[in-house]
Amino acid sequence: MLAPKRLLTALALTLIGSTVVQAADEVVVYSSRIDELIKPVFDAYTQKTGVKVTFITDKEAPLMQRIKAEGANATADLLLTVDAGNLWQAEQMGILQPFTSKVIDANIPLQYRAASHAWTGLSLRARTLVYSTERVKPSDLSTYEALADKQWEGRLCLRTAKKVYNQSLTATLIETHGAAKTEEIIKGWVNNLATDVFSDDNAVMQAIAAGQCDVGIVNTYYYGRLHQAKPDLPVKLFWPNQADRGVHVNLSGIGLTAHAPHPEAAKALVEWMTTPEAQKIFADANQEFPANPAVKPSAEVQAWGQFIPDTLPVEVAGLRQAEAIRLMDRAGWN
Ligand code: FE
Hints:
This protein has 334 residues and is an alpha/beta fold.
């Protein structure tokens, strides 16, 4: 047995040794994005740097609760999830740790990052209109707001208000129009519903294709996936509000956890994920727009055409989330 002093020294050396080795060699990511969307990016990073990236995938709520519960005994370095509304929630829970980086600042536009530096966007998706090419002319469409008009009575399909994507869209409407006008618009949408709300965006497009309704609101990558699987589907994307505030754009993003065990290695990974090399792999995997404007989207995404995006900082989705949920409830959006 070692004398107490030697034992302590041996322990200290082991601890220092293991800390150094881990910091250089491993990053742990909790991700609400599925394996096939993240693994190619992490594999490329490991190949390039030798740093091992371990990831656990689950829905965002349990991941965030787990990070909170682990507290100072954190196992996760990074939280990767979708929607500024979720990232904002994570920040409010105190599970993220802001850090500044010249690389990230140079690669990702300000409107797609937290002002506090608690998280940065990695890829973008528009939440836009879809329509039946059999029953709707693009010239019939104009804005999100106009879907509340009499013209669309019994013709609109929507996903549930419980989904954060719709909460974020509503939050940006409140930011633009104020609560009273937004409530009128949302009530108009609810009045125009052809059927009960759907549990996912894909079902909205399938309902349009099946003739159950004529217009809807979905995230672009769902359209991309469906369009690749069924190129002849009589459903198309439409970019609304091109004469005023632009299309609602949200993101997937990443933040450093408050007690990350490998903070330096984790920051280096996040920085790399904003570079053109990683952006291309990450955005293309899910038919998204790279958040780094220097990187071109995939051919499928480019084929959808150019559009003017809303210039509001996406953080608004979080700041007004609670208000949006109450308003949607009052307006009868289930
Ligand atoms: Fe989604």
